Amino acid sequence: MRIAIAGISHETNTYCQGVTTSAHFYVRRAQAMQAAAGQETDIGGAMAACERLGAAAVPLMFAQAQPSGLIERATFEAFANEIIQGLGSESFDAVVLLLHGAGVADGVADIEGELAARVRQLVGEEIPVVASFDLHGNITQRMCDNLNGVFACHHYPHIDLHVQAEAAVELAVTLSRDKRKGRCSLASIPMLLPTTTTFEGIGQSMLAEVLAQEAETPCVDISWFHGFPYTDIEHVGCSVVVSWLEDEMTQEQASAVARGVGQRLWDQREAFRPTSLSAEQAVDTAVAEVEVEVDAGTDTITDTGRGPVVIHETSDNCGAGTPGDGTHLLRAMLDAGLAQRLPRGACFGFVVDAITAAQAHAAGVGAEIAIELGARTDDLHGTPIVTRATVRALHDGRLVLQHMFRGAPLKLGPLARLDIDGLDVVVGSRRSQTFDKEPFLAVGIDVMRYDIVALKSSNHFRGCFQNIAQRIVTADPPGLSTHNISVFPRQATARAFWPMNEQASFPG
User: Fold this and answer.
1) CA–CA separation, 319 vs 262, rounded Å?
2) Model-level pTM?
3) CA separation, residue 98 to residues 43, 63, 120, 138 (Å)
4) Beta-bridge partners for 207
5) How far apart are CA 60 and CA 170, in angstroms?
6) Which residues in the chain come in under a pLDDT of 70?
7) Distance from C-alpha of 288 to C-alpha of 186, rounded to nearest angstrom
8) Residues 338, 308: Cα–Cα separation, whole Å
């Protein structure tokens, strides 16, 4: 059995400056896709499943870019055409698409639905077409109508993206081998959720309910899509998709399950309303947590058994399209004089600023340099930090992820560790959120030896830091991925959404 594998993955923040072109995408084909086997990514999961099931993978093309602004129309068309041409030139028994669900191109508000429709038109109704997704997808009926199965990762951070890609391959094999029919039922809920982890709180308890319902229902999968609120399109929002087999369920049964889960989400909507802290409030909260430990006599300079308090700057998360060069949190940490107040000090990893990183590399370790750090993209994310810093360490930025997406390479460009008023600050050259400890370790920082560790990420950092942090504090200053989603104007949809409109209703 031959399984064609292809995809386009992009989370489009339409409020970002600039256009996303082919130059921003990392494109893998054939052998490069095969080489991902063993990585805990969607490609790695798909390849591993083919090998495990004895199916021949037919890798065509997979294009992926950091979350950013609107995709150039020509770029989308070039990628879509390459996939269609590849399918037209190969023989296969099923197609597995690796998608995101929140991709938007100029003139194509639903790139996943458009791609799925083109694939379906080419292969006909008899060839199974199954897809894996990021749970932040904004899902449409068009996607569901043209797919025989939908598998979103269940967790945020996305520790199971590879698992759901494997499940997509498994269903594709089953449908092709046994000549069965898979279908998808969608329930759209008028909720715009802030970034909500499934590792604790309402996200964790709601996911447990979804998985329990999945176990009790004769369906293939229930996918809860949180949605991606940082985009202005008609179909934005939270949704539930039930994938089912025609010989096991009816359309009415599957739709009822989807609506039931949707109703439960709607009934719990107030629990998703976040409490946002400014950068200064987050720093004060973290310092107070450390001071409690010190007063209790549990902290010493040499005590590395106690984890740090982690502050994550959720509103400047490159994983949602932000520049990553914001200075709000770093400035608050410097203004608070953390190096002088904390027994074990504080560190920040990392600020995206290729100019400052290059300046540090040119000067060399031990040099003192005058810097204007960060805030090179816009004024929303702060103003540059103008000061002097000492270069403590340098690195080429070539890393391998060790927690979420374990085994996948990450290229951050030249990294520099700067000492700014006693605060250790990591500066990177390429946009990325902080997934794990690797950017810190690369420049000699052991996060377990600090009282406070700050980073830029909404929730993916939890894959590494959840189990080592004494406490996690969310900083939400102004930024393109703020929890305060009501600040984003909505022109593309006439629907009423919670929490901006208390008159929103479900069903409705």
Assistant:
1) 26
2) 0.94
3) 7, 10, 15, 15
4) none
5) 19
6) 293-305, 508
7) 46
8) 13
